[in-house]
Amino acid sequence: LLAFPHPALSFRSRSADAVRVERSVTGAVVDGNSGTRRELIRLLGQMPGLSVVGEAEDSEEALRMVGDRRPDVVVTDVRWIAPDGATFLRRLARSAPEAGIVVLTAYLSERERADLREAGARAILLKEIDSGTLVRTIRTVAARAMAGERRPEA
Fold first, then answer.
1. What is the pLDDT of residues 101-139, one digit of tens each?
2. Nearest CA to 91 among 105, 108, 74?
3. 151-154 contacts, C-beta under 8 A, 24 or more apart
4. Per residue in 15-41, is it b (16+ CB within 10 Å) or e — as a string?
C-alpha cells in the first residue's frame, strides 16, 4: 500500500526521467529499530547502482550523519522521532536540501501524511510495501533530487 500517490506510478517528471545516473546513488537509512535498519541496509546494498553511506537510529545522529555524508536519498521512519516526524524532516531538509527524503513507516494519519509532505518528504510508503516498489521509489526520488527538482516549500 502506498501512503500517497507513488511518484513512479502516478506521474512522471520529464526532467527527472531524462537524468541518467552516471554515478552510484548514495543512500542513508534512519530507523530506531536496529533490525529494520539492518534489513533495509541489506536490501539497499543489493540494489545495483546504490551504496549505503550511513545509518542512524535517532534524529540527532541522523542530522550529523546526513550533514557529513551528504547522501542523495534518506530513507527514514518518523514514528520514533521526538518531538515529531515533521519537525525532524524540516530540520533534515534544511541541513541537506539536495537529499531526497523517503518516509517508510508502519502507519500514518491523513494529517501526519500532509504534514510530512509539507515538511519535505518526496515519497511516503508503508513498511508493508514490496521491495521492488521501494527500490523503484528510491530510484525515482534520487533521479529527481539529482536533477535538482525542488521540494515543496515548508
1. 999 988 888 999 999 999 999 999 998 888 889 989 998
2. 74
3. 151/93, 151/97, 151/101, 151/120, 151/122, 152/117, 152/118, 152/120, 154/90, 154/93, 154/118, 154/119, 154/120
4. ebeebeeeeebbbbbbbbeeeebeebb
